[in-house]
Design goal:
Serine Threonine Protein Phosphatase 5, Tetratricopeptide repeat; 2 domains; three-stranded antiparallel sheet; 7 strands
């Protein structure tokens, strides 16, 4: 069975063996087709993904060549079809890590919303394990610039939800190192900051929680000219008033 991987270096595996793709251009064509989710990618759009604003005069012929090579490499398991000045790919019995991630993350989010925290943490953790590094590594910068940010946003959302489930299960002490690192990596991500404030509070470090809020408030004001959002403000007020809800794992959602 063929397995397509885009959540990290773009790779194709067949029965456990990696299939060579011969450079960034074929990887870019294949990845663009995979990300279209059974939709067609026009020749013009594919040209943008491959060459940006400076396509060669023969871009149609070159795209045709890359598609022909992919057809030969992927054999009968995958059909790449010409569709009205473009191409589309159909995956049947193939595995695709992005599709698996999205399905498991959606199930995890549903379990979290329903208050099934153990199930949510398990599903979201499994979804996040599919990531092997920055998504779309090995494709053109044009395709990566266009598509990688939305994939990274999906990863961050799943990660924040997994942490929310773990907080609801009372695992704040175990989360402290991870959340500290995440806030350092994503200083403007208010959900991570609110989660770390909650974690500090539950670890009897109220002063650290308040300092963390003030650091975030100053950063948002200096860099974006805005005030903290409702989530940060609510957690801040709960800490100031020693709201018992904040100390009750299963009743707090951040």
């Amino acid at each position: 069975m063929l397995e397509f991987r885009v959540l990290g270096p773009v790779e194709v595996h067949h029965d456990g063996q990696e299939v060579p793709l011969d450079g960034s251009k074929p990887r870019t064509v294949l990845t663009a087709l995979l990300l279209a989710d059974n939709g067609a990618v026009s020749d013009t759009q594919m040209s943008d993904f491959l060459w940006g604003d400076h396509p060669p005069a023969t871009f149609n012929a070159q795209i045709y060549t890359y598609v022909s090579r992919l057809r030969k490499t992927l054999r009968r398991e995958v059909g790449i079809t010409r569709r009205s000045r473009g191409y589309e790919v159909r995956l049947t019995e193939c595995a695709f890590d992005l599709r698996d991630f999205e399905e498991q993350a959606a199930r995890g989010q549903s379990a979290l919303a329903a208050g099934h925290y153990e199930e949510a943490a398990r599903l979201l953790r499994a979804a996040l394990r599919l990531w092997r590094g920055p998504a779309l590594t090995g494709v053109s910068e044009h395709l990566a610039d266009a598509e990688a940010p939305r994939l990274e946003e999906a990863r961050i959302a799943a990660l924040a939800s997994r942490i929310e489930a773990d907080l609801a299960l009372g695992r704040h002490a175990q989360l402290l190192p991870e959340l500290t690192k995440l806030v350092h990596q994503h200083p403007l991500q208010e959900r991570f900051r609110a989660q770390l404030m909650t974690t500090f509070y539950r670890c009897d470090r109220q002063a650290d929680a308040l300092v963390l809020y003030e650091e975030g408030r100053r950063m948002l004001a200096d860099e974006l000219g805005i005030d903290p959002g409702s989530l940060l403000r609510e957690v801040h007020l709960a800490i100031l008033t020693a709201d018992p809800v904040l100390a009750s794992p299963r009743r707090v959602a951040v």
